[in-house]
Amino acid sequence: MTVSPAAQKFNIDTVEHAAATPDTELPWAELGLKEDEFRRVVEILGRRPTAAELAMYSVMWSEHCSYKSSKVHLKQFGDKVTEKMKEHLLVGIGENAGVVDIGEGWAVTFKVESHNHPSFVEPYQGAATGVGGIVRDIISMGARPVAVMDPLRFGAIDHPDTARLVHGIVSGIGGYGNSLGLPNIGGELVFDSVYQGNPLVNALAVGVLRHEDIRLANASGAGNKVVLFGARTGGDGIGGASVLASESFDADKPSKRPAVQVGDPFAEKVLIECCLELFKASVVEGIQDLGAAGISCATSELASNGDGGMHVELTNVLLRDPSLTPGEILMSESQERMMAVVTPENVEAFEAIMDKWNVEYSWLGEVTGTGRLIIDWDGETIVDVDPRTVAHEGPVYERPMSRPAVQDSIQGSSFDGERPIGSAAIRDAILELMASPNMCDKSWVTNQYDRYVQGNTALAMPDDAGVIRVDETTGLGVAISTDANGRYSYLNPYEGAKLALAESYRNVATSGATPLAVTDCLNFGSPEDPEVMWQFAESVRGLADGCRELGVPVTGGNVSLYNQTGGVAIHPTPVVGVLGVFDDVARRTPSGWREDGQAIYLMGV
Amino acid sequence: MPRIVVDVMPKPEILDPQGKAIAGALPRLGLSGFTGVRQGKRFELTVDGDVTEEVLEQARTAAATLLSNPVIEDVTRVEVIPEA
Amino acid sequence: MPRIVVDVMPKPEILDPQGKAIAGALPRLGLSGFTGVRQGKRFELTVDGDVTEEVLEQARTAAATLLSNPVIEDVTRVEVIPEA
Amino acid sequence: MIGDFSAAPEDAALRAVRIGVITFPGTLDDRDAARAVTIAGGTAVGLWHAEANLHDVDAVIVPGGFSYGDYLRAGAISRFAPVMEKVVDAAAGGMPVLGICNGFQILTEAHLLPGSMIKNNHLKFSCADQLLRVENNSTAWTSGYEQGAGMVIPLKNQDGQYVADEKTLDELEGEGRVVFRYDGENPNGSRRGIAGITNAAGNVVGLMPHPEHAVEPGFGPDSSAYGQVGLGYGTDGLRIFSSVLNTLVAGGKS
Ligand SMILES: Nc1ncnc2c1ncn2[C@@H]1O[C@H](COP(=O)(O)OP(=O)(O)O)[C@@H](O)[C@H]1O
Question: CB–CB of A520/A576 below 8 Å?
Answer without folding.
Answer: yes
